[in-house]
Amino acid sequence: MLNQFSRTELLLGKEGMERLSASCVVVFGIGGVGGYAVEALARSGVGSFVLVDDDKICLTNLNRQIIATRKTVGQYKADVMKERILEINPNARVEVRKCFYLPENADEFDFSQYSYVVDAVDTVTAKLEIIEQAKKCGVPIISCMGAGNKLDPTKFQVADIYETTICPLAKVMRHECRKRGIRALKVVYSTEKSIRPPDDMEISCRTHCICPPGTKRKCTQRRDIPGSVAFVPSVAGLILAGEVIKDLVKPNES
């Protein structure tokens, strides 16, 4: 019988669709990258999600985040993403965790319950803790490196962290992963050199922050405010999702 996933089943097969429906994917970071990853996973038939993000949608998110519209500004990203998932697939199971994942609250998450982990956060401390917990539990994980300050979406690649080049965040992660004895990590990264935006105070979030009331991590507290466009983080997110789907459908070939 035809259903919303029939076209996908033509490529992945019935058994593949059953695996996706039975899978639980946790996504850390529902922003420009993570939002598109979740969107593609939901449209592909993943049956269960855990969405982890403490941020609210800001007006400046409209240029790149799939959940950001004038209507959703000021709402929690994870709540809006959950609503969107259920509009796509009412049978999906969605858990929202409105927090910023750090070592201090790591014990609140049971990674053994997840089929796959998607790391789409931009903080090294959080990324490392997510990766270590996933590795400890033997859960497959894919991590996104830097997607800000870039203009060429064709430069993204999938590789092991130790095979990456150029990306400054990947360089830091290689060093930190090696220190922690992490032998392998699948990542999405860009070989494009980062563009350094002009320090224009007229349009700087650092001096003119318009984050919604209640936002826990204001732009004025961030170390750097990267430039971004619609067509770079979205591509990174879709690549993440594609790798997750392939690995879940054919786990013995991942």
Short description:
This protein is of the alpha/beta class and about 250 residues long. The chain is about 35% helix and about 15% strand.
Low-confidence runs: none
Radius of gyration: 18 Å
Q: How does the overall form come out from the CA principal axes?
A: globular
Give the proportion of residues in helices: 25-40%
User: Beta fraction of the residues?
Assistant: 5-15%
Average pLDDT score? 93
| CA distance, first residue to last residue | 30 Å
Strand order of the largest sheet: 3-2-1-4-5-7-6
Keywords, separated by commas or semicolons:
6 helices, globular, 254 residues, single chain, seven-stranded mixed β-sheet, alpha/beta
What does this structure look like?
By secondary structure, this protein is an alpha/beta fold. It contains six helices and seven strands, in the order αβαβαββαββαβα. The protein has a seven-stranded mixed β-sheet with strand order 3-2-1-4-5-7-6, sandwiched between helices. Helix 2 links the parallel strand 1 (24-28) and strand 2 (48-52). The longest helix is centred in the C-terminal third of the chain and has 17 residues, at 233-249. The model has no long low-confidence stretch (mean pLDDT 93).
What is the secondary structure topology, with strand pairs?
Layout: H1 6-21, E1 24-28, H2 32-44, E2 48-52, H3 77-88, E3 93-97, E4 116-119, H4 124-137, E5 141-144, E6 156-160, H5 168-179, E7 186-190, H6 233-249
Parallel strand pairs: 1-2, 1-4, 2-3, 4-5, 5-7
Antiparallel strand pairs: 6-7
Helix pairs in contact: 2-3, 2-6
